[in-house]
Amino acid sequence: MPSSQPSRPSAWVLPAFALPVAVLGAAALWLGLRLVLRGPGVGWCVWVAPLIALDVAFMLRLAAAPAGRLRAGLAVLGTAAAIAFGYWTVVAAEMAALIGLTIPESIQRLGPSLFWTLVERGTSAWEMALVVTALPLAWWLAR
What is the 3-state secondary structure (H, E, C) of 67-136? Predict the structure, then answer.
């Protein structure tokens, strides 16, 4: 149950460092799974999105972020950022394999227009539902 007293600013030092670690770690996990599970019919491993919500919410809890709407909002924001960056890295890895670049080069060169076109073409309605479901799941787990 959230307390009615405002939290101290010093209570947010560790969570401020934990959130970017959770975002980058989740995106790296997604890319790693996609590279390991590469093959026909695998898709882009979008089923990882709810796991990202779980990871970000529990990372904030482990970092002792005070309970409440702020922690839940940060969990949603972190989940959205991790999903966006994870998608970006997976799409960039696909492009890197096609045109002979390394993954970091492709991450830097991939433009938003091409990224969005590939996401629209390569993501089914079921996969988008998983992505959209991850955001309220993050809120619920972090509240």
Answer: CCHHHHHHHHHHHHHHHHHHHHHHHHHHHHHHHCCCHHHHHHHCCHHHHHHHHHHHCCHHHHHHHHHHHH
- How many CA atoms, within 13 angstroms, populate the side-chain half-sphere of residue 55? 24
How do the pLDDT tens digits run along the chain, 143 residues long? Answer: 555 555 677 788 899 999 999 999 999 999 999 999 987 777 889 999 999 999 999 999 999 999 999 999 999 999 999 999 999 999 999 999 999 999 999 999 999 999 999 999 988 999 999 999 999 999 999 99
46, with CB counted inside 10 A (0-12, 13-18, 19+), is: buried
Residue 124 CB partners (closer than 8 Å, separation 6+) = 43
**H-helix segments, 37-68:** 48-62
